[in-house]
Amino acid sequence: TWALTTLVSGGFFALGLVLIGTVSAGTPRPFDTLIAGLMIGLAIAGLAGLPWLPSRYPRLALTALGGIGTFLAVGYLGLFFDRSPTWLILMGLGCGVGYFFGLEPAAEPGERSP
To answer: Is the entire prediction scored with pTM above 0.85?
Structure first.
């Protein structure tokens, strides 16, 4: 289920990014934005749901750092519509943490989340 979750989540992230890229200022670059979205979505979703790293806080840190690294890589490759390092770092951090909490399994009733 980890692979399926990663693929579906990454695919939807890419499609959302293409939609945002088409309505943003500047010349739309759907292919570049699709590649950027796949890179970001697959990396962040894959890290957020790592099944072999059950501890919550190391996985959260890894997902946040992975988000930052992936956004910086996409900006460096010129695939993204904004290349400001500060913006890329903040977006990577926000996406990484957001994906982590979005994909974190809910605790059973009466049970605390790890």
So the answer is: no
